[in-house]
Known about the structure:
- Strands 4-3-7-8-11 form a 5-stranded antiparallel sheet. Strands 5-6-10-9 form a 4-stranded antiparallel sheet. A two-stranded antiparallel sheet has the order 1-2.
- The radius of gyration is 15 Å and the shape is globular.
- With about 150 residues, the protein is α+β, with helices and mostly antiparallel strands.
- It has a domain of about 55 residues.
- The longest helix has 15 residues.
Amino acid sequence: MNHKPKSYSYISQDSITSMPIPKWIAVFNKYATNRLFLLFAGGIPPFAIVNHQGTYSGNSYRTPIMAFPTKDGFVFALTYGRNVDWVKNMISSNKGALEYQGEVIEIHKIRHTSYNDVRKEFPFVIRFLLYIITVEHCLIIDKNTTKGIIMDD
């Protein structure tokens, strides 16, 4: 008997997307937990900050995430699914920035991939947790599409 946890699905504009973590947790994290993580994300791996611009508002946003370096760039697990603000903003503009270990990395290309295609890029413990919550989607940025900039202190 398969005891895999339930995956929550929501209908998006272009397709049905899976959201492994319930929406109420995503909303709570957006308005509460993320403010705490912004204090240290970007300096302590694997925590990073994605800088992106609102598609309609044009406002600048900073969203803490977990980024995992690969030999070619970075991979991000979409634990809240593909239909979240920062992902939609990054995909629509095809640009943004990643703050990682005190460095700001410009992003000029970002692409979706399935978790199964990149699961070996994650450390074992993270892979296990992503399996438990049934993550299906990831984002990839490649080094050849980024330019590193050292942040001023």
